[in-house]
Write a structure and sequence with these properties.
The protein is an alpha+beta fold. It is built from 3 helices and 5 strands, in the order βαβββαβα. Strand 2 and strand 3 form a beta hairpin. The longest helix has 12 residues.
């Protein structure tokens, strides 16, 4: 498994299969755009088939705060340490920030607690009709 923050050579064809169970998922083309526009990105590539199998993104002001909006691992690669490695590497990348926030469903909170994160409360708006990133 290769982990990298470089998107050099990554094509939308390498991003098939993500956003499982999303009602209105981004296309692979939109997925590549969101990776490109992120403050930080780390991807996991299975070098045997040149497929991106996991990714994590961060958005930030570059000074005090960062937010991790997306962590995804393809279903066939879950429970193999890919997500753990992506989170660990991203937290190292963001280590100089005052605050690093993740908003996730309650059932995922224990996963992030393993990385030293603490539960907090927050508020969200979700426009599911815009979930695909188009329009």
């Amino acid at each position: 498994m290769k982990y990298t923050s470089s998107l050099d050579g990554v094509t939308h064809e390498m991003l098939e299969g993500f956003f499982v169970d999303w009602s209105n998922p981004p296309s692979p083309e939109t997925h590549l755009r969101l990776l490109t526009n992120s403050y930080k990105v780390i991807i996991a590539i299975d070098e045997t088939n040149n497929q991106v199998v996991g990714f994590i993104t961060a958005i930030s002001d570059g000074i005090l705060s960062a937010y991790i909006p997306l962590l995804e691992v393809l279903p066939a690669y879950k429970n193999k340490g890919v997500g753990k490695e992506l989170v660990t590497r991203m937290l190292q990348e963001l280590n100089d920030m005052y605050m690093i926030d993740v908003m996730c469903d309650e059932d995922l909170q224990p996963y992030y607690e393993k990385f030293g994160m603490i539960r907090s409360s927050g508020l969200i708006i979700r426009n599911y009709n815009k979930q695909s990133g188009r329009g």
